[in-house]
Design brief:
It holds the Pfam family adh_short_C2. It comes from Cognatishimia maritima. One of its GO terms (molecular function) is oxidoreductase activity, acting on the CH-OH group of donors, NAD or NADP as acceptor. This protein has eight helices and seven strands; from the N terminus they run βαβαβαβαβαβαααβ. The chain is an alpha/beta fold. The model has no long low-confidence stretch (mean pLDDT 96).
């Protein structure tokens, strides 16, 4: 019997994390590197990526680019694969929430939210999956949300994309898991990130959200480590097409 402690070991794997300049994406990159993976971090802010790579060390590399630019996806995929080879693990943590009320949603806000939250995870995966299929092993982790199933004020565009991420995850699993490539999603509750700054800057609102969980608190960045490593490793080899809610029981109440 294989020692279960080795199930989470990512030594020899290459991971790519989008949205790695801050928040849960940054934390994901650090967790994957700590588990032994070589990590490619992707975002638009080159300075933030350089700082992250300096913290991780030589087993990391940065790709500063706009993943919403679909016309450049082939070039982006090549740039991601250049430092360590094609990635085995792809974590889609990049996200945008314009927080526009339904009556105020603009064409630009809608299109950008859709491009970053839903289109980019699919088209970047489509570009990188062939190499995973050749190896017979791959892990895709999308980022869903509380708003994949709940409606929040000012979240109609964001919620529509995150609902789409749930179905995208299931469809990816159906298409690619026969080739050894699993696709799952993490659905974070309230974590302190740039996207949720408006929530955590309002102590009363943050406390109200914490009280709505079963555990009684909001998330901390380290709460994402275990669920992420599970979905990115051999530990989850028979798990695909699932959304793992990491929300302290927010959606259970």
């Amino acid at each position: 019997m294989r020692d279960p402690r080795h199930l989470f070991d990512l030594t020899g794997k290459v991971a790519c994390v989008t949205g790695a300049s801050s928040g849960l994406g940054r934390r994901a990159a650090l967790a994957l590197a700590s588990a032994g993976a070589q990590v490619i971090v992707v975002a638009r802010r080159a300075d933030a990526l350089d700082s992250l790579c300096a913290e991780i060390g030589p087993e990391s590399a940065a790709v500063a680019t706009d993943i919403a630019d679909r016309s450049a996806m082939e070039d982006i995929a090549k740039e991601i694969a250049a430092p360590f080879g094609a990635p085995d693990i792809l974590v889609h943590a990049a996200g945008l929430n314009t927080r526009e009320a339904a009556d105020d949603v603009t064409d630009h806000g809608w299109d950008q939210t859709l491009a970053i939250n839903l289109s980019a995870p699919f088209f970047l995966s489509q570009a990188l999956v062939p190499a995973m299929k050749e190896k017979g092993w791959g892990r895709i982790v999308n980022f869903a949300s509380l708003q994949s199933t709940r409606a929040f004020p000012g979240g109609i565009a964001y919620g529509a994309t995150k609902g789409g991420v749930g179905q995208l995850t299931r469809a990816m699993a159906e298409a690619w898991s026969p080739h050894g490539v699993t696709a799952n999603a993490i659905g974070p509750g309230f974590f302190p990130t740039e996207l949720t700054a408006a929530v955590f800057n309002d102590p009363e609102r943050a406390a109200r959200n914490a009280a709505q969980t079963c555990i009684g608190r909001n998330g901390t960045l380290e709460d994402i480590d275990g669920p992420l490593l599970f979905l990115c490793s051999d530990a989850s080899s028979y798990v695909t097409g699932q959304i793992l809610m990491v929300d302290g029981g927010f959606t259970a109440k």
